[in-house]
Amino acid sequence: xxxxxxxxxxxxxxxxxxxxxxxxxxxxxxxxxxxxxxxxxxxxxxxxxxxxxxxxxxxxxxxxxxxxxxxxxxxxxxxxxxxxxxxxxxxxxxxxxxxxxxxxxxxxxxxxxxxxxxxxxxxxxxxxxxxxxxxxxxxxxxxxxx
Length: 146
Description:
Oligomer: single chain
Number of strands: 0
């Protein structure tokens, strides 16, 4: 892959703005495992190797079961994920693929039944945040760490 500009080097203020959003997300109610599942699943959809690598490693450090990570891209075809996680993953897919149908009423309704408004808002913001990170990394061919 050809070398491209790295936004963190050429526009550090913009990159720091993204870190502000990331910091906000990390201080919220969203569980760390939920946040990592969102990050990994959106990154799989977006084809972001940099983010898949980073967030899979983070999830493993948090004690996530490797089998769940290996099967995350087929989550709907397993019994490894709780009902809450299934809804979170569905939200992740629908918001990431917003051009298809967006967040459907069915998924939204199920989320409102399971989560309070703040938690749901943080789920949506988590999806938005990782999608922004994915777009930066994919468009600049961000090299893998370690």
